[in-house]
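Schema walk-through. Below, the input block comes first and the output block second. Nothing else is stored per chain. Lengths vary across the set, and this one has 260 residues.
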Amino acid sequence: MSTYSGASSDLASVVDLQAVNTPSTNQTDVFDNLATNVLDGLRSTALATATTDQLNYLSSVQFASLADTQLDGLTSVQLQSLADSQLNGLQSTQLSALADTQLDELQAFQLVSLADSQLDGLSSLQLTSLADTQLNGLQQTQLSSLADSQLDGLRSLQLAGLADTQLDGLRSLQLTSLADSQLDGLQQAQLSALANTQLDGLRSLQLTSLADTQLNGLQQAQLNALADSQLDGLRSLQLAGLADTQLDGLRSLQLTALTD
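--- output ---
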C-alpha cells in the first residue's frame, strides 16, 4: 500500500490513509494545517480509508474546499464522527451532493448545528430519506426556512412525528404547499397546536381532505379565525362531526356562508 509522509506534497498517489497511521509513521495528523490546494488532490477512495482521528484534524475551511466527488467517499462512520464545527464548513451544494445513504447516518444533533443556508441545499428526496429521529432534531427556525419544494418531500409519517414546537415554525405558505396526503399525517393534537396565522394558509380543498378525527382537534378560536372561503371546503359530514363547543366558535357570518 502507498504511504504518505505528511509533507505538503500531492496526495493524489495515496491509496490508503489508514496505512500511514501506524506506530512507525504516527501520522494521525496527516491533515493538520494541510493546504487546501494540496488536499484537492486526495481521491474519494482514499478519503474513505481515513481514520476518525485523522479526520478530526480537518477544519471547516478544509471541508469546504473538498469537491463533491471527494465527499462521496465519506462513509457513515466517518460522517457520524464529524464535529459540528467541521460540518459548519460544508456548503449547501456539498450537502445536496451527498447520497441519501450518507445523510441517513447524520445524527440529530449534527443536523441541528447546520445553518439555514446549508439546509437550503437539501432536496425533497433527501428530506424524504431522513428518519424521524433525525427530523426531531431540527429546530423551529430551520423548518421555517425550508422551501415549499423541499417540504414536498416529507412523508405523512414524518410530519406526524414532528413535535408541536417544531410545527409552530411552519409558515402559512408552507402549510398551503403541503399535499393532502401529507396533511393526513398530522395528528389531532398537532392541528390543535397550530396558530390561527398558520391555519390561514390552508386551502378549502385541504380542509376537505382532513379526517373527522383531525378536525375534532381544532379549537373554537381556530374555527372562528377561518375565512368563509376556507369553511366552504368542509363537507356536511365533517360539520356533523364537530362538537357543539367547536360550533359555538363560529361567527354568524361564517354560519351564513355555510348555508349559502
